[in-house]
Write a structure and sequence with these properties.
It is found in: Membrane. This protein is an alpha+beta fold. Helix content is 21%, strand content 44%. The longest helix has 36 residues, at 30-65.
């Protein structure tokens, strides 16, 4: 009789490979991120191109127009009174300053809309004067020079310490005083038919002003002031 028993298996199976279980598809955002990166890259390239274009425009304008700040000078002084009274801390003064302003530009004219001058002694302001007002503003043409003047007259309460009083007496004995003048401008430039917006430069003048006594004329050397835009 034939033996119907199954042969003994050793546990190993060498049948066809079992396919892996199906996996759920994954959704990636690489495409959207790459699109955002492309947009940012394009934006920065456009911005860089605009900055370079603006820089080239400014450079070409400067090379063609060659804008220069005006030159400012103190030409003459007339100080007939500068007396300090220690009993009431009052300064009596009478001073006239003559200025010249030079426009060195070949293609730009300047509108002077307002100029205010402040006078200081020992870092303390004692007088002010409207050199140019809106009513008498004027236009200075290319390569030209214009005169200006400021009149400081009156009295002012000026509290000076002992060192400053000693400096005043020293200047009085020398017959000249160290005066600091600061001027505030409101100006506009004109190129052809176009006028710029308002600029507000400052001018600083350190001058040694001689005191005129008994109508004796004292020599004063023209002093160039610092122009700060």
């Amino acid at each position: 009789m034939a033996d119907n028993k199954q042969p003994h298996l050793n546990g190993a199976y060498y049948g066809p490979a079992i396919p892996p279980a199906a996996q759920q598809p994954r959704y990636h955002h690489h495409r959207s991120r790459s699109c955002c990166c492309c947009l940012f890259g394009i934006f920065w390239k456009i911005l860089a191109a605009l900055i370079v274009l603006a820089g080239l425009t400014i450079l070409i304008f400067w090379l063609v127009v060659q804008p220069r700040p005006f030159k400012f000078y103190v030409d003459a002084t007339d100080l007939t009174q500068f007396e300090y009274h220690t009993n009431n801390n009052t300064l009596n003064y009478n001073m006239v300053l003559n200025f010249t302003v030079r426009n060195p530009n070949k293609k730009l004219s300047i509108y002077y809309d307002k100029v205010e001058a402040l006078a200081f002694y020992e870092d303390t302001r004692f007088g002010s004067y409207d050199v140019i007002t809106y009513l008498n503003s004027f236009r200075q043409y290319k390569k030209s020079t214009s005169p200006m003047s400021a009149v400081f007259a009156g009295e002012r309460v000026l509290v000076l310490d002992n060192d400053q009083i000693a400096k005043f007496n020293e200047d009085k004995n020398a017959g000249a005083f160290d005066i600091f003048v600061k001027l505030y401008f409101r100006i506009r430039f004109r190129l052809g038919d176009r006028t710029t917006s308002t600029y507000k430069p400052k001018v600083k003048c350190d001058i040694r002003v001689p005191l005129i006594a008994n109508n004796v004329t004292t020599f004063f050397k023209t002093t160039e002031c610092d122009v700060d835009f």
